[in-house]
Design brief:
Shape: elongated
Radius of gyration: 27 Å
Strand order of the largest sheet: 1-2
Number of helices: 13
Order of helices and strands: HHHHHEEHHHHHHHH
Strand content: under 5%
Length: 263
Amino acid sequence: MAPEKAPAFQFYPKDFLTDGNVMAMNNTELGAYVRLMCICWLERSLPVDLAVLGRRCGTKEAAFAKLWPAIKPCFTEVDGRLVQPRMERERAKQETWRAMKAEAGRNGGRAKAAGKQKRSRRLAEPSPPSSSSVSDLPSSSSSSVSDLLPTAENTETRFRRFWAIYPNKKAKDDALKAWNRRNPSESMTDLIIAAVERQKLWPDWTKDGGRFIPHPATWLNRASWEDESTVAAVSRVSNIGQQNAANAQEALLMMEERDAVQR
């Protein structure tokens, strides 16, 4: 069965307006970007064809091609389609939450069924001594809750998952303390692990043999799973500087040609 399409996504104005790529956009580029984000959320990805993207934005291909350099750093190509990384994290949060709610509902249903079976058995069998009445309470309801709560056992298991994939294995005790302070749920653990896998590919983590990978305790204390790579923003600012220089050079040549004609 295909995943349910969520009708809305969480929008964080401060994060959006302070993003380096967004700050570099003019109003026309920003409008096209917001439209593409909405389409990407509903359809889960976008085509890479600029002509198609332009039509989806109500813009001719030539005009859209001028907007695309500002918008492109906000998307990542995966298997021949474009996705927006931040929106995919929001989508994962929603899908994980729905799965948890569904599982809690199923566990609750099983607990009710178990309770009915026990009550039926009590009616069919002789009444037990009053001292054993506590054991007649449905036990499955408590176990279903423990599956969702961050118990000590679950917390340790989730930390082992994190430690197994984190590339800088230093100061494990400090990392465990930081993990216990966060005490992440199962869904948050999934997000943390996905962030580690993503950040493993960042230049800061791959250069010099991983010399600049943060200690795991530092990474956890800073909530660095919310970090986003600055490479795209730096590249965008560099491109803008190059374009401004090119525009200035072109204007200077036009002035020189005009002066030559007047002379």
